Amino acid sequence: MGGKPLAALNIAMFPNQTEFFPYLKKIMQGGIDKLTEAGVSIIGGHTIRDKEPKYGFAVLGIIHPDKILDNSKAKSGDALILTKKIGTGIISTGVKAGLCSEATIEEFTISMAALNKRVSEIMNVLRVFIRSMFHFLKML
After folding, report:
1. In the chain, how many domains are there?
2. Which residue from 58, 74, 132, 136 could staple onto 9, CB 3.0 to 4.6 Å apart?
3. pLDDT per residue over 45-57, tens digit each?
4. Do residues 59 and 84 share a domain?
5. What number of CA atoms fall less than 13 Å from residue 39's CA on the CB side?
């Protein structure tokens, strides 16, 4: 986290069943809409036939090496900022198995469709604030 996404490659795997094609169109349009919202261009991709539908992107971007945000330096007691609700993987499995209520599916879908762009922007500002505060405290 912390970089600026610029371009994406699409990957789609889907069953060779004509009744699935309208869903595939909606899935692909949703991806296009989210990348447009994020200011990212789709520059290519690949589709293949598979039993279970899968869809995603390989996103390319830029970041200064000193500004990469990851969890490799996390310590006990550090504050956590969650970009999605805990349990989305379990709910995703439940949706595929037909075990979730419509309300759960709707809440899950809204959460998963939300971009992390604003969170990334906030993290970059907080990092500057935290570093400035740390530098100030060291001077005392």
Report:
1. 2
2. 58
3. 999 999 988 999 9
4. no
5. 8
